[in-house]
Amino acid sequence: MSASEKAKALAEQAIGKVKKEVGRTVGNESATAEGSAKESKGDLRGAKEKAKDAFRN
Hints:
The chain is built from two helices and no strands. It is elongated. By secondary structure, it is mainly alpha-helical.
């Protein structure tokens, strides 16, 4: 996994998790949904990079 892509994936996951929890805390469903989406995007980015690494080896 390239270091920059791994960092992007981890950043998206962290930002999404924080946004989701803040939205849940204040009762903002829109922010909660956006946070969940961003967290999922980070998960997918990480999975894509792991798959690329598997095919390289």
